Amino acid sequence: MRSTLFGLIAGATGLLLSAASNAQPTYQFVQKIPGIKHIAPAVTGDPSLPGPNRLIGGTLQAGFFGEVSVEDFIDGKTLASRVGLTQGAFLWPDAGWLKFSYAGKTLYLAKKEIKSSWSGNNIYLSTLTNLNLIDGGKILEIGDHTYKVRLLSCADTSPATAETLGGEWNALIYPISATSPVTEKWASYPDEDIAISGNHYTTCKESYESTLMWRGNQGVESFGSIVYLRWRPVLEVVQ
Question: Any idea where the domains of the chain sit in the sequence?
Answer without folding.
Answer: 1-30, 68-91+112-237
